[in-house]
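Escalation from tier 1.

The customer reports that the assembly of two entities below gives different structure tokens on two consecutive runs. Tier 1 could not reproduce it. I'm attaching the input and our single run for tier 2 to review.
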Amino acid sequence: MYRLAAAVLASASLAAFAAAESELSVVIENHKFAPERIEVPAGKKVKLTIDNRDATPEEFESNEMRIEKVIPGKSKGVVWLGPLKAGEYKFFGEYHEKTAQGVVVAK
Amino acid sequence: MFGTALIVFRETLEAALIVGIVAAATRGIPGRFRWIASGIGAGILGSLLVAAGAGALSQLAQGMGQELFNASILGVAVAMLAWHNIWMSVHGRELAANANRIGGDIRTGAKEMSVLLVVIAIAVLREGSETVLFLYGVAISGNESSAPMVAGGAIGLAGGVAVGWLLFKGLLRIPLRWFFSATSFLVLLLAAGMASQAARFLIQADKIPSLAAPLWDTSWLVSNSSLVGKALQGIVGYDAQPAGMQMAFFVAVLAAIVAGMAWARRRAEPQAPAHTAPNPT
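Tier 1 run:
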């Protein structure tokens, strides 16, 4: 009985953990992403919030993930990623491609 | 300055290619250049409005306003291009016959052109609003003084327009016999490609499933960040790593338009049995 309860609890907390994990965020500051490397669970849809703290707009773009979204200055935007197979997926800020580079790692 | 020129060129390219195709496809319709110019004008005006309202637009629909807006205007463009091709499948032959004469039916021509005005306005608006936002960013960041920025923007714009112009001129060199078949085919691909891009935005907004993503990967051959990739994306909606759903949209729209064209042609034929009719193409 205890074992069952423990198992239920464990799976519930795992589920909660998974739910928490599938909502991630990244900050844009000085035309750079922080973090530049974002780990996500493979095979799942992930909600990524992009917080642009610069005054200038940025276009969050990824060819590999088929994403293209303008984030106006001093505002947040949300994109849905995946479900992604395990692997690395580059993304960049189209308006400041030299500095704004990052990678999503699906595991 | 070079960076500004390159980005503006990339954004202008797609719109310019679409305008080039439409300009060629409407050969023989009276007053078409005025319509095309109005479409471009409306698109530029729309770009400024969309860029100004980008913040508000993003907040709509639980943060998915931008995706839904893009998908909707692409949907409208697909419908207009479909209408154009179905209309052309009946009228293309008359236009080919009249192409070297002044005249033609001004009223049907106007209806056709008002439909394509919308397509041009949408193409310009989509790429234009991104360009406006980018230039706004450059302007307020103060890293670049305004003179090189304006110069860069102008160079990029001129480059994009030049490519569209070359495509237009190139298409006009196709012999009249094949001309409308060729432009119809291009418009067909354009519409199907836009449908695929609309699907991409709907997937991004989590409104439809992606189905087998990516379906294939040709980024080693033509990447979407390359200029060739950008041009192909503008014309056929090319994605190096497309989602299965994008292909489903592409094929469905392609099939629907081809069916519509066949239906319109059958309806326009006189009662004579179609299979014995001489085929002028």
